[in-house]
Design brief:
The chain contains 9 helices and 3 strands; from the N terminus they run H-E-H-H-E-E-H-H-H-H-H-H. The protein has 227 residues and is mainly α. InterPro entries: GntR_C, TF_FadR/GntR_C, Tscrpt_reg_HTH_GntR, WH-like_DNA-bd_sf, WH_DNA-bd_sf.
C-alpha cells in the first residue's frame, strides 16, 4: 500500500498526492537542497518519498510547467537554472499583474471601505514585533494574495499563482529584507487601496515593484548567469 508520510501529508489535506509531491520538491529546489543542473529520476524520488512512480511523474510534469525542471526523455528531469533574463521577465510579469491587481482592488473597494488587508497588516506587525520571521513571511505572502483576491479577477489570480513559486525562488537568493521596510511598503499600498483611488494604488504598486527590481538585480547580477 502506498504511504505518504515522507511528503508530509496531513489528515484532511485537500491537495492530491501529485500536488503534494510537487509542493515538496518545489520547496527543496527553492531552498537549494536540489541544486540547478542536478538530475531527478522518478524511481529515486519514489523510493525517497515512499510513493509509487506515477504520482512522481505527474508531479514532475507540474514542475516543468512551472519552470522548475526540464524533462529529458529517457534521462529524467533536470533542475532548472534561474537566469538573469528570467529574473527580469518575472519582474515584468509582476509589474503587469500586481499593478493591475492594486488598481482593480481600489476600484472595487471604494473609499472608506473596510479591507481584510488591515487584519493582515496587524498580523505582520505582531510577527515583526515578536521577531518571528516565519510568521512574518506567511503574513506578507497572505497580504499579496489578498490584494490579488480583492481585484475580483480570477484569471489575474491564476496567472500570478503560476509564477509565485519562481518569484519566491528568486527572492530566496537575496539577503533577508528588513521587516520594518517591508511593513512600511505594505502599509503604503494598503492605504492607497483603501483610499479607493485606482490611479494612486497603481502608482504605489508600480513604484514599489520598480524599486524592488533595481535593488534585486544589483544583487543577482553577480550570482546568476545570462540567458
Amino acid at each position: 500500500m502506498e504511504t505518504t508520510a515522507a511528503v508530509g501529508v496531513r489528515t484532511g489535506e485537500l491537495k492530491s498526492l501529485p500536488e503534494q509531491i510537487c509542493d515538496h520538491i518545489r520547496e527543496l529546489i527553492i531552498a537549494d537542497e536540489l541544486e540547478p543542473g542536478s538530475w531527478l529520476r522518478e524511481r529515486d524520488l519514489a523510493q525517497r518519498l515512499d510513493v509509487s512512480r506515477i504520482p512522481v511523474r505527474e508531479a514532475l510534469l507540474m514542475l516543468e510547467t512551472e519552470g522548475f525542471v526540464r524533462l529529458v526523455p529517457r534521462r529524467g528531469a533536470m533542475v532548472s537554472t534561474l537566469t538573469l533574463a528570467e529574473a527580469e521577465n518575472l519582474f515584468d510579469v509582476r509589474e503587469a499583474l500586481e499593478v493591475q491587481a492594486a488598481k482593480l482592488a481600489a476600484r472595487r473597494l471604494g473609499a472608506g471601505a473596510q479591507t481584510p488587508l488591515l487584519d493582515l497588516m496587524a498580523r505582520a506587525e505582531a510577527a515583526a514585533e515578536a521577531g518571528d520571521r516565519v510568521a512574518l513571511e506567511a503574513a506578507n505572502a497572505a497580504f499579496h494574495h489578498e490584494v490579488l483576491a480583492l481585484s475580483g479577477n480570477p484569471i489575474l489570480e491564476s496567472l500570478m499563482r503560476s509564477i509565485a513559486g519562481r518569484v519566491r525562488w528568486l527572492f530566496r537568493k537575496l539577503p533577508s529584507r528588513d521587516p520594518a521596510s517591508q511593513l512600511a511598503k505594505h502599509r503604503e499600498l494598503c492605504d492607497a487601496i483603501a483610499s479607493g483611488n485606482p490611479d494612486l494604488a497603481a502608482a504605489v504598486a508600480f513604484a514599489q515593484i520598480s524599486r524592488s527590481r533595481i535593488n534585486a538585480m544589483k544583487v543577482l547580477r553577480p550570482l546568476l548567469k545570462d540567458g
